[in-house]
Amino acid sequence: MVTLGKQLNKIGKHSLVEKNTLEPQWEGPFQVLLTSFTVVRIKEQNTWIHHTRLTKTPKTPWKVTQVQPGKLHFSRSYWYH
């Protein structure tokens, strides 16, 4: 949870936006244009988005390793920047 006194995102960083408030699905990443302490403005939407509907994007979302010829192993990193 983000406290009121800290900005959630920096201008120019990317964020994921929750698709619907009751479903855990994410859209994006979208670049942040403007921020306040509780809301964020992105380029792709004309309305402000509340900070509870945002999360930071993963640095490296997927890593692909070739196990054998013709076989790939996909892994996901959950470290956020």
Automatic annotation (TrEMBL):
It comes from the Eukaryota. Residues 19-54 form the Murine leukemia virus integrase C-terminal domain. The keyword Nuclease applies. It holds the Pfam family MLVIN_C. Keywords: Endonuclease, Hydrolase, Nuclease, Nucleotidyltransferase, Transferase. GO terms for molecular function: endonuclease activity; hydrolase activity; nucleotidyltransferase activity. This is Murine leukemia virus integrase C-terminal domain-containing protein. It comes from Cairina moschata.
